[in-house]
Amino acid sequence: MNLFTTIFLLSLSISIIVQWFLVQRHISHIRSNRENVPEAFNGKIPVEAHHKAADYTQAKVKTGLAELIIGSVFLLIWTLAGGLQLLDSWWRSFGLSEIWTGAGFILTVFAIMSILDLPMSVYRTFKLEQSFGFNKMTPKIFIVDLLKNAAVGLLIGTPILLLVLWIMKNSGSYWWLYVWATWLSFSLIMMWAYPAFIAPIFNKFRPLDNEELRTRIENLLTRNGFKSQGIFVMDGSTRSTHGNAYFTGLGANKRIVFFDTLVDELSYDEIEAVLAHELGHFKCNHIRKRISVLGTIFLIGLGVLGWLINEPWFYNGLGVEQASTYMALILFLIASPAFTFFLQPLFSFISRQHEFEADDFAASQAQTENLITALVSLYRENANTLTPDPLYSAFHDSHPPAPIRIAHLKSKFA
């Protein structure tokens, strides 16, 4: 066992211990506040709904912790127990070129990972979500979605994977710069193509046919200089009772999408306020900022991989005997989360600040009270806990805790 093995095991162990500690704090805090609805929500969220949110959140974080532990065990089997080495030897026995061997090897790894994740996916959908009344997915839809995901992943992923492996093999010591440019270009193309060509494979989208609501939304967009390809309602209720709304796409191919569950739940004033919040993310350049941050992190990561790819200790430290470009890539992909886990609080903080900024924008475009009542409705219907542990929330949550967010909005008309 070399030094890198020790560092890897230490980092993985610390990440598990920290996660476990945060989950225990979170559960304890929620339990201690289960019987009392926070003052800001008295008369707005029934105690029964508060109980449901507390129980649902505890069940989710326990499931997440179990997934983390199981995933860590599989990671050790892939690496130090020799799983990747065994699979690599099997693919090499076919005598293919390194690029085709690497593509087959990586696709096989992802396929096995998906199969290993299947029991937990079934549990989340048909046990966890269903026991709290959220799941609407049938076994048929579940299986069809799996097959569609696999087909789309192969059709889109295989060519880009072959291209990346070819670049790594044939572009010299600065291959990582070309791979980064390829990744960035591919990501932007996918953001542009997703709403029109990929999303309809999985869900049905119909134009919003409510004339009054559509007029109000179009007026909101017009006065903010926002152009979209259309306003659509998605059949979210075929899979879940959770409600949501979002902007999707890039450039002239942007769309506004409402879950049908959200349209049925909120008033027109509330829907307009929710949309103003989503519009705020665009007006505040959050999408561009997130792409820039992710692009920078990915560039740094590829630069690190460009150094590691030539270091025997990197392979040996993760249970691999024979170095190759594709092995370096898959090792980096599956092992790096153990080291980057500690960046999560930073990403969460940035995301929460963006949510505050989007709320501020919404408050300038719609009645703040309408956004508050919409959020309260969504908290209730989606069973979002009103009493998260502050430390857990600071580490993990992409959105501000409900009481803090509502207090921030109320300050706008105090």
Give the structure's gist in a few sentences.
With 414 residues, the protein is mainly alpha-helical. Helices cover 72% and strands 4% of the residues.
Characterization of the model:
- There is one protein chain.
- By secondary structure, the chain is mainly alpha-helical.
- 72% of the residues lie in helices and 4% in strands.
- The protein contains 17 helices and 4 strands.
- It has helices at 3-32, 47-78, 83-92, 98-131, 139-170, 175-202, 211-223, 260-265, 268-283, 286-308, 312-317, 325-335, 337-340, 344-365, 368-382, 390-396, 402-410, and strands spanning 205-207, 231-234, 245-248, 255-259.
- The chain has a 4-stranded mixed beta sheet with strand order 1-2-4-3.
- A hairpin with a 6-residue loop joins strand 3 (245-248) and strand 4 (255-259).
- Helix 9 packs across helix 15.
- It is globular and about 65 Å long.
- The termini are far apart.
- What would the principal axes of the Cα set say about the shape? globular
- DSSP strand content: under 5%
Tally of helical runs: 17
The SSE string, one letter per element, is: HHHHHHEHEEEHHHHHHHHHH
Give the strand order, joined by hyphens, for the main sheet: 1-2-4-3
Mean pLDDT, to the nearest integer, reads 93
> Low-confidence spans: pLDDT under 50, at least 5 residues?
none
Number of strands: 4
- How would you describe the oligomerization state of the chains in this entry? single chain
Radius of gyration equals 23 Å
Distance between the termini: 62 Å
